């Protein structure tokens, strides 16, 4: 099928490109369940689309193995068969200065099989590493994890910077989590009350703060009120 006839999300070359071009910051949207379902569906469809393209590039023997379920990636019991392919991939990415570790791990979420997991040593843009690190390699999925940036403490002094006026409700959830007590006010006001006396409390919170209520109006933050 010609690219212009495909659904728009299937025209991208990677999931990272799709997220950037479509301005997708999060897949969690408790305030809009339909949007959350659509993004999750499109993510899975794009992943399957990229897999089909990769499948077409494999050798006839590798495609035959995958069709029969005999490919090394399809069972964690075939780790010895997977090792030569893993070593080939590791040698390929070893010279890259931002790669800190490459490992083989079992698939999660009750699915059998092996994936190759690559850890980036620094917060490098996907536009840099995606040039050299494929989504799939010889039938194996490549999972890329980036070094997590440590979130600053939430204090009374910096709350306005961490949760600034104009921030959307979805962005508040991304910073503080979705465990908020929600109440509605008049004239488009909405209140998200967070209690921090029970862990976990993302981001790290000053122990002097018992809770915070984020005040929104027409979907964006307009104020912050501390419980203590």
Walk me through what this model shows.
The chain is of the alpha+beta class and 228 residues long. It folds into 3 domains: 1-57; 68-148, GMP Synthetase, Chain A, domain 3; 159-226, Beta-lactamase Inhibitory Protein, Chain:B, domain 1. Helix content is 32%, strand content 21%. A 4-stranded mixed sheet has the order 1-2-4-3. A 4-stranded antiparallel sheet has the order 5-6-7-8, with helices on one face. The protein is elongated. The mean pLDDT is 87.
Order of helices and strands: HHHHEEHEEHHEEEE
Total number of β-strand segments? Answer: 8
CATH topology of the largest domain: GMP Synthetase, Chain A, domain 3
Residue fraction in strands? 15-25%
Record the strand order, biggest sheet.
Answer: 1-2-4-3
How many H/I helices? 7
The profile of the biggest β sheet is: 4 strands, mixed
Morphology call = elongated
Chain-averaged pLDDT: 87
Put the structure in a nutshell.
The chain is an alpha+beta fold and 228 residues long.
Notable characteristics:
single chain, 228 residues, GMP Synthetase, Chain A, domain 3, 3 domains, four-stranded antiparallel beta sheet, 8 strands, elongated
List strands and helices in order, with pairings.
Elements: H1 15-21, H2 33-57, H3 60-68, H4 79-93, E1 99-106, E2 114-120, H5 126-129, E3 136-137, E4 140-145, H6 159-162, H7 169-176, E5 181-184, E6 189-195, E7 211-217, E8 220-226
Parallel strand pairs: 2-4
Antiparallel strand pairs: 1-2, 3-4, 5-6, 6-7, 7-8
């Amino acid at each position: 099928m010609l690219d212009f006839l495909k659904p728009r999300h299937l025209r991208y070359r990677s999931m990272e490109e799709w997220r950037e071009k479509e301005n997708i910051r999060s897949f969690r949207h408790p305030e809009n369940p339909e949007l959350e379902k659509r993004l999750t569906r499109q993510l899975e469809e794009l992943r399957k689309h990229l897999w089909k393209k990769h499948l077409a590039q494999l050798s006839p023997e590798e495609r035959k193995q995958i069709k029969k379920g005999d490919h090394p990636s399809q069972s964690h019991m075939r780790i010895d068969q997977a090792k030569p392919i893993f070593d080939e991939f590791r040698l390929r990415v070893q010279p890259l200065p931002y790669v800190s570790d490459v490992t083989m791990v079992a698939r999660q979420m009750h699915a059998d099989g092996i994936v190759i997991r690559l850890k980036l040593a620094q917060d490098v843009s996907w536009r840099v590493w995606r040039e050299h690190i494929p989504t799939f390699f010889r039938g194996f999925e490549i999972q890329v994890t980036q070094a997590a940036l440590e979130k600053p403490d939430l204090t009374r002094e910096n709350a306005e910077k961490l949760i600034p006026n104009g921030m959307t409700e979805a962005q508040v959830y991304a910073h503080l989590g979705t465990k908020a007590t929600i109440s509605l006010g008049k004239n488009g006001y909405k209140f998200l009350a967070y209690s921090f006396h029970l862990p976990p409390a993302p981001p790290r919170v000053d122990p002097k703060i018992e809770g915070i209520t984020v005040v929104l109006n027409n979907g964006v933050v307009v104020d912050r009120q501390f419980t203590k």
